[in-house]
Amino acid sequence: MHEYRTHRCGDLRIEHAGEKVRLSGWIHRKRDHGNLLFVDLRDHYGITQCVVDSSSPIFGVVEDARNETVICVTGKVVPRSDETVNSSIPTGEVELVIQEVEVLGPAETLPLQVNSDEDYGEETRLRFRFLDLRRDRVHSNIVLRSRVISDIRRRMTEQGFVEFQTPILTSTSPEGARDFLVPSRLHPGQFYALPQAPQQFKQLIMMAGFDRYFQIAPCFRDEDARADRSPGEFYQLDIEMSFVTQEDVFAALEPVLNGVFNEFGDGKTVTAAPFPRIPYEDAMLKYGTDKPDLRNPIEMSDVTDVWRGTDFKIFAKGIEKGAVVRALPVPSAANQPRSFFDKLNDWARKEGAGGLGYILFQDGEAKGPIARFLDEDRLSKLQNITGFEDGDAVFFVCERAETAAEFGALARTRIANELELIDQNTFKFCWIIDYPMYELDPRTGTLEFSHNPFSMPQGGLEALEAKDPLDIKAFQYDIVCNGIELSSGAIRNHRPEIMYKAFELAGYAASEVEARFGGMLNALKFGAPPHGGSAPGIDRIVMLLAGEENIREVTMFPMTQQAQDLMMGAPAVVSKSHLEELHVRVEMPPTKDE
Questions:
Q1: pLDDT at 561
Q2: Taking the CB of residue 372, how many other CB atoms lie within 10 A of it?
Q3: CB 3.0–4.6 Å: which of 212, 304, 381, 515 could bond 161 by disulfide?
Q4: 263 and 270 Cβ atoms separated by less than 8 Å
Q5: Does the pLDDT of residue 548 top 60, yes or no?
Q6: Ramachandran class of 56: left when φ > 0, alpha when ψ lies in -120 to 50, beta otherwise
Q7: 200 and 173 in contact (C-beta within 8 Å)?
Q8: What is the pLDDT of residues 341-380, one digit of tens each?
Q9: Count of CB atoms situated within 10 Å of the CB of 486
Q10: Which helix or strand (DSSP H or E) is residue 538 part of?
Q11: Over the range 530-555, which residues count as b (16 or more CB within 10 Å of their CB) and which as e?
């Protein structure tokens, strides 16, 4: 018999009755029934109920062992009585009568209970993450993550993609976030950067002639945590393809994403390929965001002209000063009680808006506080634009375009959640396309890249030379699922003269471009194929599939929101000798009293 186990804790079935077996695992839960002590023994594979009689000489050993103690038990498998069968677990028809027990790893008093879903707070959970990972929900999420990655690898390989690993120690790049820097011992005063993404390397792989690359790539960004973004590091499905158009990239990724979500989506419906393509400008108008949740049926419309020149001065005067009016038609909302609308108005004011005007359409009539300001012609025009039907309500936002989009997006989500309009049993994908190549920095007013600086501008060099930069669109795209951005991507700029010009418009001199991206430019000058790619986030994919709202729940060892690893004690102060070896001196920021 094996020293530790003949079977795993999820293996035993009724056909094993009568056999002598050995199991090892953690004490998940104990139940004292007087003369019998029941122990649920858990390992990675499942739970088996074990039982020991109070007359047994080993009873005291089992009784004294705390939950999460690791034990090895040997005994006989017996059928459970009909009334004690547990159909909720695969081993529920049998139990193990303990004849021998060995304590392999005693447990101290637990800082959190593994057999409970109680939330012990971020600090406790992450400080004792090894215990948190034993809990069924988190444990299952991490297993799901592994299965998803394996499935993605299979699907990519079947499409002819080849997996390569790119460097971790590299140079800084303008990805939009702060780099993590690593001091060089051999080159005093110089630093490596951890890659924000393998962007330049994967393009160089295409220029090296490998045609189809992918990698489950680690990425490092010194940015603040959010629910859908871990501080410090994350993983993405990084892909790049040669001799492709935008549609070719879409055609390669869509079956992978559709397949993975169908495989692991717990029966939820998944958008079939081809996924909808939504131009960036349309997304901002209809949804107020470039990350639209298409499960939400509410779509905004521009109804500025409907309200222009009316006697409703709040809207009319706002329009004269440059404001726009966005309409949010909400199906079957007209019959909601007055308190529903009052509550939304209160919420809007707390968000900094003047309120949330609305019109109700019931029995062929327009009702509500501002309905009287629209005559029949304007109401008809409103219906043509929004498509409202009898029984619907239409809400209105009047602000500057950017603010109207932002607040409209919040209102759209708030109303849909209040009325439970969002379908929880589906994954809805879309591509956001035609991003602007440039935007103005709101603080300085200077031109900067709005997305990936290595993207091909639509219209090429001619567009860069002849068009207003703010009117130039790029072959850039995002993939969005249920309001979560999974990926950014682009068809790359593979012509040196176009790259020089694109960076020049963003304020980069040719010498600076050569200094920062010399490897890339050098390769472009020796025959570069047209190429493009994308990089869906693994963490976000698994978060959606697991039904979690925080990415921490699908990450093995996440940091806190303050980017600290409480379990390993990172970041930490290093010794003076280590700093001297790296030619680095630490200068602490002044304290509040200084």
A1: 87
A2: 12
A3: 212
A4: no
A5: yes
A6: beta
A7: yes
A8: 999 999 999 998 878 899 999 988 999 899 999 999 999 9
A9: 25
A10: helix 538-546
A11: bbbbbbbbbbbbbbbbbebeebbbbb
Residue with tokens 């400008």: 281
The encoded tokens of residue 478 equal: 């995002």
**Joined tokens for residue 514:** 């050569």
H/E element holding 205?
helix 199-207
Q: Give the dihedral sign, CA 578/584/585/588.
A: negative
How far is Cα 258 from Cα 488, in angstroms, rounded to an integer? 17
Mean pLDDT computed over 475-480: 97
Average model confidence (pLDDT) across the chain: 94
The burial of 459, by beta-carbon neighbours within 10 Å (0-12 exposed, 13-18 middle, 19 or more buried), is given as middle
Long-range (24+ apart) CB contacts under 8 A made by 252-255 are: 252/159, 253/479, 253/487, 253/534, 253/536, 254/429, 255/155, 255/159
**DSSP states along 410-472:** HHHHHHHHHTT-S-TTEE-EEEEE--BSEEE-TTT--EEESS-TTBPBTTHHHHHHHS-GGG-
Q: At residue 176, does pLDDT exceed 80?
A: no
- DSSP one-letter code for 571: S
Backbone angles phi, psi at 125, to 5 degrees: -65, -40
